[in-house]
Amino acid sequence: MAFETIVKKQVKKIREPCLKCVDMVISELISTVRQCTKKLQQYPRLREEMERIVTTHIREREGRTKEQVMLLIDIELAYMNTNHEDFIGFANAQQRSNQMNKKKASGNQVIRKGWLTINNIGIMKGGSKEYWFVLTAENLSWYKDDEEKEKKYMLSVDNLKLRDVEKGFMSSKHIFALFNTEQRNVYKDYRQLELACETQEEVDSWKASFLRAGVYPERVGASESEENGSDSFMHSMDPQLERQVETIRNLVDSYMAIVNKTVRDLMPKTIMHLMINNTKEFIFSELLANLYSCGDQNTLMEESAEQAQRRDEMLRMYHALKEALSIIGDINTTTVSTPMPPPVDDSWLQIAHVQPHAAAPSPRRAPSPARVAGPCSWASACWVRPGGGAPRALQAGGFP
Q1: What are the residue boundaries of the GED domain, all occurrences included (predicted)?
Q2: For 19, which of 5, 58, 113, 116 is 20 to 30 Å away at the CA?
Q3: How confident is the model at residue 327 (pLDDT cuts 50, 70, 90)?
Q4: How many H helices and E strands in the chain?
């Protein structure tokens, strides 16, 4: 049965991605283990032994997990459950195919858009020219550019067929031609329209698009048809065969959606149960016992040279700081200090400064220079010099 054969081929393609998923989980798990063991870097032997034990267990679980994944794929290949509640069934698939055909027939569906070079028309105009082609179920149009504002021409695909054209001597493009089966001109005065692509893959893709539009390749001879079996199959397609192919495609799509849903659901569960949770349980319950059974535990607890050097430096720093604190303590206990004398009482200065200015005694005027009382007959006074001696008047001869 065609349906079963196609489904089995599609299911087998899932096997490789599933195994790759397991490999990615294992790689991430081992990376996590190494990050966790970085905390034991001061004990390199213990860290190395722990990584070895856990990694060995993970590798053992890898084989078990991959076997289970392969078993899931084999179970899917063993039986095609066409009674699944999500499966559309043959009747629904045929109905869907008919609806799609009606939808295509009711509307002018766009099949393909892309750039093509018109090879033979451009010869008279100085060279080939590239246009933007739009292929629908009813016609073929080309525009000046991909904005589709300036339409150059549109022709119907009725009675059109395809044929290959050999490349020219100086041409590097791959060419195919459209011609009318009723010997009419395809475009203006041209019996065929030669279209060129950069690669053969583009030519094949355009041929497949024209086939969907009902433009079939030109029939070839018996010898060539034997060499190109796929082309002869394409030539023999008729509407009834197309409906059957569409029905099978709908059935395959529906069933593969069920398979993909099942695999996406079971793969994480399988990996978590057989890989992640099992490894976690092993670390909690069996890792310590495996470490004790490795041999001498003192060897495992040997420090690295860097850690021993760092410990010695910390011990030296500890003793130095302890000695410094002891010296500081001795200084605090042996030093004798005398108390400072009491402050001087200067309150009387403040009281004298606060007394008002009026209460202060008024200063006496300095006494006038003393007059010498004597038998002076004149009214002027005789002044006495402070240092003694005769007054100036007497010295000046003023005395009569």
Answers
A1: 245-336
A2: 5
A3: confident
A4: 13, 8
